Amino acid sequence: MQFKNLLPVALAAAASAQSITDALAANNATLSTLTTLLGSQPAIVAALSSASNITILAPSNAAFAKAMNSTAGMAAAAAAMPDVIAALLQYHVINGTYPASAFTRTPAFVPTLLQNSSYTNVTGGQRVEGYVNGSSVVIVSGALAKSMVVTPDVKFNGGVIHVIDTVLNFPISDSKTAVAAGLTSLASALTSAKLVDTVDNLKDVTIFAPSNNAFGAIGSALPNLTTSQLTSILTYHVVQGTVGYSSLLRNTTLKTVNGGNVSITVEGGNVFVNSARVIIPDVLVSNGVVHVIDNVLNPNNTAVSVVPTATAPATVAYSGASSASATFSGAMTTQAASSGSGMASASRAAAAPAIATGAIGMGALFGGAAVLMANS
Ligand SMILES: *[C@@H]1O[C@H](CO)[C@@H](O)[C@H](O)[C@H]1NC(C)=O
Ligand SMILES: *[C@@H]1O[C@H](CO)[C@@H](O)[C@H](O)[C@H]1NC(C)=O
Ligand SMILES: *[C@@H]1O[C@H](CO)[C@@H](O)[C@H](O)[C@H]1NC(C)=O
Ligand SMILES: *[C@@H]1O[C@H](CO)[C@@H](O)[C@H](O)[C@H]1NC(C)=O
Ligand SMILES: *[C@@H]1O[C@H](CO)[C@@H](O)[C@H](O)[C@H]1NC(C)=O
Ligand SMILES: *[C@@H]1O[C@H](CO)[C@@H](O)[C@H](O)[C@H]1NC(C)=O
Ligand SMILES: *[C@@H]1O[C@H](CO)[C@@H](O)[C@H](O)[C@H]1NC(C)=O
Ligand SMILES: *[C@@H]1O[C@H](CO)[C@@H](O)[C@H](O)[C@H]1NC(C)=O
Ligand SMILES: *[C@@H]1O[C@H](CO)[C@@H](O)[C@H](O)[C@H]1NC(C)=O
Ligand SMILES: *[C@@H]1O[C@H](CO)[C@@H](O)[C@H](O)[C@H]1NC(C)=O
Ligand SMILES: *[C@@H]1O[C@H](CO)[C@@H](O)[C@H](O)[C@H]1NC(C)=O
Asked: How many structural domains compose the chain?
């Protein structure tokens, strides 16, 4: 189906400035797959055609081919899952005009038109992260997937289009992110405390997710915890009502779901929560953001001891605890948690492949949707 045929109004109105249709047609050599996909989404097309002040992140034909292996595969997916395609396209449209020059080296977390609560519980629309690296703009989406802007600033009368080399990933749920990221100890702890659904269904969260090494460092204390203590500890890692993307965090206290406060300290380019250091910031999830930290927080020990060097050992918040395999009391049976290195790396670049494990092709593109479908 030709996109043009669906846009008589937009075409008629596009007398002076280039319409979105014209802009896409002028770039048909790189954007024909996107144009074809839009052809199957008349409601999205109508919304985009009348929108002003938007930024379209337009995956190139090569990006779609990479995601779906073939254009034919894309067409089949579009036919099979029109709702998912609609949501995916909404996630590729930023609310606001952001030419390449609007991005800086400091990450910006900008809202998209994806607001459907089947896919996101971030108020104002699910975010993408954008920043400048060298001479290119990088867009980061779910599971730390990076898309490079390959052709910036194609202007049209509703805003601007950036052609990107990789289709964006939907941010998925907290629990699925923990599993995908190899945060096996945290995933086990949440399961053990029966907190998976509770946490996944919160709105607008900031989650401080201890690495496997963090759980390992207090391993001796874990088997002795009651379920209520484990619940108290885990909910102390969750802030609701504030989505604290790293570039927005300042020295402050934040109230956790547990009821107690955590102290945020920003020093020397590092972010600390109480005495724990953020080692992987800004993993976008369906209901907010996750920061991986190097220590398990203790609601009964809110001391702040900040050691802003990457090599310094983490300050353990559990007195008397020693290193051991991380296991949990109560429901923990078959889920012996790994104390392996997991996400201990301080480098996001190193973390990304771990997070993206298994996320290729259809899986990456529809990660969030596959979860939704499995649950419904
Ligand atoms: C755009 O490219 C596609 C695929 O190459 C082609 O089938 C289509 O006719 C082109 N459309 C226009 C308007 O040039
Ligand atoms: C898609 O591409 C991936 C990576 O190149 C490959 O492993 C996979 O077999 C391909 N799938 C299909 C259906 O071609
Ligand atoms: C939200 O997404 C669901 C699931 O894909 C879909 O059925 C529904 O129509 C969408 N709602 C809106 C308002 O687009
Ligand atoms: C864009 O954001 C503004 C607030 O900044 C909001 O009022 C508006 O509804 C949003 N537009 C869309 C299409 O979501
Ligand atoms: C464009 O959208 C952004 C983000 O919603 C808003 O801050 C800005 O005021 C809007 N500009 C215009 C001209 O509407
Ligand atoms: C958003 O929260 C509602 C409950 O308020 C839940 O039903 C829905 O599944 C959540 N959406 C996502 C994407 O997790
Ligand atoms: C910036 O670009 C360089 C060179 O391509 C790459 O090695 C590095 O990982 C990029 N950094 C970020 C934060 O994207
Ligand atoms: C856990 O409980 C065992 C048995 O009650 C006790 O020997 C051990 O010292 C406790 N460990 C910690 C860290 O409290
Ligand atoms: C915190 O201290 C209180 C009072 O001593 C105790 O009841 C509770 O179990 C402790 N919580 C944790 C997670 O250790
Ligand atoms: C935040 O707190 C740290 C530690 O107290 C301090 O070094 C730093 O200057 C503070 N930052 C700001 C912006 O006040
Ligand atoms: C949490 O911090 C707020 C603001 O600083 C303060 O008003 C409140 O009393 C604190 N709550 C606890 C439980 O310490």
From this structure: 2
- pTM of model > 0.85: yes
Q: For residue 196, tell me if it sits in a domain.
A: yes
Q: Are residues 151 and 190 in the same domain?
A: no
Query: Residues for the chain: how many in total?
Result: 376
Same domain (yes/no): 202, 251: yes
Considering the domain boundaries, does residue 250 fall inside one? yes
- Residue pLDDT, tens place only, 179-235: 989 999 999 999 999 999 999 999 999 999 999 999 999 988 888 899 999 999 999
Q: Is 221 touching ligand 8 by the criterion CB < 6 Å?
A: yes
Nearest CA to ligand 6 atom 14: 201
Buried/exposed 53-75: b ≥16 CB within 10 Å, e otherwise = ebbbbbbbbebbbbbbeeeeebe
Ligand 10 atom at minimal distance to the Cα of residue 266: 1
* Residues spanned by the domain of 268: 174-359
Q: Among the bound ligands, name the one nearest to the CA of residue 253.
A: 11
Pocket test for ligand 10, best of 266, 272, 309 (most atoms within 8 A of CB): 266
